[in-house]
Amino acid sequence: MAGRAPYTPVDAHEIPGVFLLDSEDLWEPASNPLNRYSTIRKDLSMQKMNPGYSFSLAMREAQPERELGLVVNARGGSKIEEWSRDSEYYQEALRRTKIALKDGTLRGILWHQGEANANDPAYLDKISQLIRNFREDLDAPEIPFIAGQINTSGDYLFNQLILQLPSVVEHTAVVSNQGLTAMDRWHFDHDSMILLGQRYAEKMLMLEPSVEPFTE
User: Fold this and answer.
1) Nearest to 90 by CA among 70, 60, 113
2) What's the predicted TM-score (pTM) here?
3) What CATH number does the domain containing 53 carry?
4) What is the pLDDT of residues 114-138, one digit of tens each?
5) H/E element holding 173?
6) Is the omega angle on the peptide bond into residue 33 within 30 degrees of 0, that is, cis?
7) For the Sialate O-acetylesterase domain, which residue ranges apply (predicted)?
8) Number of domains in the chain
């Protein structure tokens, strides 16, 4: 998710202990908008707050002794077909992740996409293949992969299908949209984006059983 939720001055600070891979493949203190260095993003003016902000805060709260590096390379409104193994979107995400791995350890992949595939009956097969591709190409067969439901402005087949992911692919989890609200047809509002990121952190910590889960 590139992130379209507006953020306030309160959300504009650097996140202590969290670093963002920049356009020069260097680490800088992370701050909103986190997708600004994406090599496949739309115009910079469209990059706002995504779940990575509150995810990072929650992860640091749960694990204050561990620094966190973010590789954010999203493209708003993209279809999952545009993330096929030989596509520019996939290859750029893979390339930047491999650069980041020179300085750290891959802990997980956060994936929030689906509006462009909202009623695609084959989505579960497509995302399962995407996960296999990332795990093979990163030599990380059990890396946690966390996806999320899209908003409830429509009766989207996607939100039913994605819940089946953990029963189809091991070491995956799905974040619920329960109680979240949208600012338009597709995009979560500010407060819901904060909750969404916290839920991603909760799922990540559940896939790391040695750490107590974060609670909203």
Assistant:
1) 113
2) 0.92
3) 3.40.50.1110
4) 999 999 999 999 999 999 999 999 9
5) strand 172-175
6) yes
7) 1-205
8) 1
